[in-house]
Design goal:
Blueprint lengths: L3 H46 L9 H70 L15
Helix pairs in contact: 1-2
């Protein structure tokens, strides 16, 4: 079994790795939220540009609206692809966080086992020490 100093060093490293993966997961969630929000805004813009049946518009304005709506739909499709990419990144980051937590838990269990083994070793050493003879001990009782 590795010594306590080596386990402590590994534990520090695993704790740092866990912190980094948690930060990466938070960034992934923020990016996913940002991309989702952008996609919703683009969809809202595309819905707002759609022609209304009551308005009378010229052919040029209808053409411009159609062109703008087409561009918004292209942007919406690109935003949807970014949302899916961000979602996959969130899933990978969450899995990395779970793996880092498992690694850290394993090291913590090894540390606990090492502490228990050291305590057992100390207890055995105390049990094996020769008893102090009461005859050799100087006693100064009150007379």
């Amino acid at each position: 079994m590795p010594d306590a100093k080596k386990l402590a060093r590994i534990h520090r490293v695993r704790t740092l790795q866990l912190g980094l993966t948690r930060a990466e997961e938070v960034r992934a969630h923020e990016k996913f939220a940002s991309e989702s929000n952008l996609h919703r805004r683009i969809q809202a813009l595309a819905d707002a540009v759609s022609p209304a049946p009551d308005t009378v518009a010229s052919a040029a304005s209808l053409g411009a609206q159609a062109h703008f709506r087409e561009r918004l739909h292209q942007s919406s499709a690109a935003a949807q692809a970014r949302v899916q990419s961000a979602e996959m990144f969130v899933n990978r980051a969450a899995e990395a966080t779970r793996a880092a937590k498992r690694d850290q838990s394993a090291i913590e269990k090894l540390l606990d086992r090492a502490r228990i083994a050291a305590l057992a070793k100390e207890m055995r050493a105390l049990e094996e020490t020769p008893p102090v003879s009461p005859l050799k001990a100087k006693r100064h009782d009150p007379c």
